[in-house]
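My current task is to audit a protein record that another person submitted. Thanks in advance; the entry in question is below:
***
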Amino acid sequence: MDFNLTEEHIMIRDAARDFAQTELLPGVIERDNKQEFPKEQIKKMGELGFLGMMVDPKYGGSGLDTISYVLAMEEISKIDASASVVMSVNNSLVCWGLEHYGNEEQKQKYLTKLASGESLGAFCLSEPEAGSDATSQKTTAIEKDDHYLLNGTKNWITNGRTADFYIVIAQTHIDKKHKGINAFIVEKGWKGFDVGPKEDKLGIRGSDTHSLQFNDVKVPKENRIGEDGFGFKFAMKSLAGGRIGIASQALGIASGAYELALKYSKERKAFGTEICNHQAIAFKLADMATQIEAARHLCMKAAWDKDQQNDYTMSGAMAKLYASQVAMDTTVEAVQIHGGNGFVKEYHVERLMRDAKITQIYEGTSEIQKIVISRGLIDK
């Protein structure tokens, strides 16, 4: 085993850290308050190659490994989880699925624009009655002569209004249940495709989260991804990699909160000394650092599994389950260490605490991760 990062990994990590500090940190509190999408910052992320990190350069991507992606996600998430979730969705759920399961025409038409950052993507699986139970798709795509007719509602869609292209999971053969589900590429602006109001969220308030409505939307047959009935497998395979992205986001939120708490504890004085010298605070810092390091190793192991083409279903689920819990625990303690200042927006930790919660929910709740892990253990 080699725990050292390569020179390329260090360069990518440092580039992401510099971008986060110089481009994302200024205005991050204001964007959170106003629920403002970081449009200009996301555009720059695309120009730097952060939106198609693992895509082959021939399709406009950076051609990097998953470890590089984890490193960059952590640094971006330390500062602005609303920006990192855009990065995660575009990389893990949209670009990865298109590159691995799309045909050459779809890659040339859509992937090249998504990987280069020219366009943004959205992944549309969740519905009002299909969250954790993704098999219960009520959105339908009925086959016609040269197209499918798409009808239904999707909700909690990241990049809901700002995306240009949407991967939509829908039921084509109801009698076949999950084996009759397909995945389709839908373009913004198609007739019958409407975007609902932006959700007013607890955290990641800058991200663009909407419900989508499809009313007799004509989707050309050439926009179906994979063979007929492949949609559910496509979604599950995409989510397996997506968990690594969200685990890395949770890791970044935790490490960002820890760094702020450590710095504050060295500056704030109480009872005649810096509060880091009090055992009550020092032990909190020790626990936080240990848990973050453990989460980091889980994220790296999952990324390594993916890069080695091992089965990363369990390692990805473990990383997301643990890192999201560490994000919650660490941000709560960071607020506590800041005392009254932790309850004030200008110190950033209250926002990180709010952002942390969603990592236990989206792309598979913590309860779903335990199902994935336990099934993997039992099936061995």
User: Anything to note?
Assistant: The chain has eleven helices and ten strands.
